[in-house]
Amino acid sequence: MRRFLDRLYDGSAYLAGLFLVLIFAFTLLGVAGGLFGFYIRGTDAYAGYCMAAASFLALAHTFRKGEHIRVTLIIQRLAGRPRRWAELGCLAVAALLAGLFAGYAAKMVWWSYVFTDVSASNDRTPLWIPQIGMAFGALVLFVALADEFIQIARGKDPSAPDGTAGPAHVE
To answer: Is the pTM value of this prediction over 0.90?
Structure first.
């Protein structure tokens, strides 16, 4: 299971990287169009969709690598069992919120599909298509938070996101 989850987080990060490249391509296409006198409808909207997808798809991998900005003003002063309980409490709240957001995002994708909602931009893209990246990224973040909660509950050092000794994030 560990191997599958790590591949899920890494795969999500690779997809985020692909969407970053697409942001560059759509932006470059828009600039080139301005320079050479042609217009391709929707390049700005597609760059925006790619930005949303890249942002959400990168969340779980970034969390697992300990790269999220964490405010540890109180937790850093704790050690041992109190720290473990504080970390578990924070992870429980974060997983709950991420799960609620993932559920809402999935519902939004579904309703956009059912009601055939389209972009208000001139590209007229069915909105459920770009919303999938956000919903999937939110779901993978929920899985990563629940995974971390379970690992810490089983005894992993809460100050080491990758399982090694010592904090891997900026305090």
So the answer is: no
